[in-house]
Design goal:
- The protein has 3 domains: about 15-170, Thiol Ester Dehydrase, Chain A (Roll), CATH 3.10.129; about 180-230, no CATH class; about 235-319, OB fold (Dihydrolipoamide Acetyltransferase, E2P), CATH 2.40.50.840.
- β7 (about 200-205) and β8 form a beta hairpin.
- It is globular, with a radius of gyration of 24 Å.
- It is about 15% helix and about 35% strand.
- The chain has helices spanning about 15-20, 40-50, 85-95, 190-195, 310-319; strands at about 25-30, 100-110, 120-130, 135, 140-155, 155-170, 200-205, 210-215, 230, 235-245, 255-265, 270-275, 285-295, 300-305.
Length: about 325
């Protein structure tokens, strides 16, 4: 029997039954809870640090990456007919019955046809675009389900959002701690990870306006120019903000540990572990210095070691 053709209690192929849902609606005649609006655009830009002037002023547009935001139901959910279709609920129920009771979002793709502007009222429909054959992953065996959502303003298609999840049966727990997840390397950030392997922290710089940016992007979020080069970070910075991870634990990590948003001397910020001090002694404003750690074979990651401060030296001297 081929992989993906395991049978359920009725003797029917699970994979064949799942494939029957391809092309069926996932959402029909959905409507945005709110029109496109300036406050939500402002919150998004503040959260992402995006200062592009196109998103402010009387002729503002919404950042294209907000496409899915306008379709979300928030904590209270959508009311009325808007919501998941019975076909999508049936598909998820069938996956649950087959033992694939866990779910994780894997990736999304977006296409933009025209900008959204404050006042636009969006509608959306979604379809179950594909259900994969049974796949075995580190998390467990299961199926990738891809939905395609078409977003419209009136009759005009303004964007398409593809969202993929993995519904899987969790793999048996191992006593040995699993390896750390590897970073996702693509054509937009490959240069950054090449630099890390060489022990260099490279920051992108726009060749038109000189703005530095991190994480790496295909274009400048200040002027939109696509040309760029790099500068090497000095390796110094301060903790701009941080969190201490306690729960839920991830098998590859041993909580509690501190994850910091570090502001580099060059002005950009990046997220990484803060090491060299107990997790409960990390503080905003703490000076840190870059170092590269090899965690496993062929896995080198940039982390930030807390530097000794005058206050620490005073306390140690008093002791």
């Amino acid at each position: 029997m081929a992989d993906g053709e395991e049978r359920d209690g009725d003797g029917q192929g699970i994979a064949r039954r799942l494939k029957a849902y391809e092309g069926l609606p996932a959402v029909v005649s959905g409507t945005g809870k709110d029109p496109v609006n300036a406050p939500m655009i402002r919150h998004w830009c503040e959260a992402t640090g995006d200062t592009n002037p196109a998103y402010t002023g009387p002729d503002a547009i919404a950042p294209p990456t907000m496409l899915q935001v306008w379709t979300m139901g928030g904590l209270s959910g959508h009311t009325g007919p808007t919501g998941r279709s019975s076909a999508y609920d049936e598909l998820l129920a069938l996956l649950d019955e087959s033992g694939c009771t866990s779910v994780v979002a894997t990736d999304c793709e977006q296409e933009y046809h025209r900008p959204l502007r404050p006042g636009d009222e969006i509608t959306f429909d979604a379809v179950i675009e594909s259900v994969s054959d049974r796949k075995t992953t580190r998390l467990g065996a299961g199926y990738f389900v891809t939905t395609r959502m078409d977003v419209r303003v009136g009759p005009d298609l303004v964007g398409t959002h593809r969202f993929r999840i993995l519904k899987y049966a969790p793999a048996a727990r191992r006593e040995k701690r699993p390896p750390r997840p590897r970073p996702v390397v693509n054509r937009d950030n490959a240069g950054f990870w090449e630099g890390v392997r060489e022990g260099r922290l490279l920051i992108q710089r726009c060749t038109a306006c000189g703005t530095l940016r991190h994480p790496w992007l295909p274009g400048c979020n200040t002027c939109g120019h696509l040309g760029w080069d790099t500068v090497e970070a000095s390796g110094t910075g301060t903790v701009h903000s941080y969190v201490v991870m306690h729960h839920p634990p991830f098998p590859a990590f041993a909580p509690p540990y501190a994850v910091g948003l570090v502001e580099l001397t060059e002005g950009v910020r990046m997220v990484s572990n803060v090491v060299g001090v107990p997790y409960d002694e990390v503080r905003i404003g703490m000076p840190v210095r870059l170092e590269f750690r090899e965690y496993e074979e062929e896995l080198v990651l940039p982390v930030f070691r807390a530097e000794e401060t005058a206050g620490q030296r005073s306390r140690e001297a008093a002791v």
